């Protein structure tokens, strides 16, 4: 029996707020009163996606049947003519999450049930340990392991490079790290200094924590393929779960070189917008984990399609889970993670701060290194528009990186 609830879309509201971080939130309301929420945040370009949604996407949604998630996805993807792109795909991602939320609420079922049900009892995660020195990083990792986490990403400042990636500096937590930067900060990089210092982190980590704990590392696209190949070989004895974003991969073919030289597992995808961006990587089996995010790759519909495609090639999923994704995206990913037969691991740095918890509520909790998703209908999240209004948008940028001679590099 089809539900008698009128799910015709009557309103689409877009909000940009900064409860600790800037978030773009889309709320889709239907005639019967059921509404859904989605995350469309693009870090550092928030107003562009908000305007795109408000001025160009919202008018096309009014009057459509919110049940037709696939048709609306295709309508926005093919109908725009221009296709792909971070702003376009994040806006589709936000709308798509809100529609799955609506469908779940209308059916009285959590989204993971609509996807095919749980494939596991909970979602395994990796946490982040970053520090100014190896000891500092490993002390933070020890505290996380003490809390029950089983997998930890390790990043340490590179000696001689002040403010290099991954280090908190005077910021208390990762949520603050990228907030309140009215212009992009400029940070230094030297591949030689990095390559000369990185091995020690993993030598010390294995010596201190043994072989059971899963260790990960993010290179943030700063190496060339042959440098990444060398790093992968160097880290083989330390048995990483994966090495992330070793090389910038607009040219997916670059990964063939890395793959040919090392058995260190490789992960990529946090800046990918579509299945097309990861197609060659996956079908050539150059990677082991695909890290596309629900927001940036076009929503739950897109993540599901990427996961199914990846499964054919033994590639597992490991969605991006940084704090510039709102709790709505974290929830959408947790539902997909719970279902995906080829789920690998979820990045986790917390769901929010006191301020963002005033604005977003979610039916998820973390125990013993796993996200437990409740059985609330839809995504189990809510967004308080009045609370959000107390935290106005605050322009902020990601950093840029320069080599020591001033050449602009990948951050
Ligand atoms: C990082 C991110 O979590 C990660 O793996 O690469 O912190 C990334 O720098 C930010 O999400 C960019 O907005
Ligand atoms: Mg990353």
Automatic annotation (TrEMBL):
PANTHER family: D-GALACTONATE DEHYDRATASE-RELATED, STARVATION-SENSING PROTEIN RSPA. It comes from Tropicimonas sediminicola. InterPro entries: D-mannonate_dehydratase-like (IPR034589), DgoD-like (IPR034593), Enolase-like_C_sf (IPR036849), Enolase-like_N (IPR029017), Enolase_C-like (IPR029065), Mandelate_racemase_C (IPR013342), Mandelate_racemase_N_dom (IPR013341). Residues 134-265 form the Mandelate racemase/muconate lactonizing enzyme C-terminal domain. GO terms for biological process: carbohydrate catabolic process. This is D-mannonate dehydratase. Belongs to the mandelate racemase/muconate lactonizing enzyme family. GalD subfamily. It comes from the Bacteria. Pfam families: MR_MLE_C, MR_MLE_N. One of its GO terms (molecular function) is magnesium ion binding.
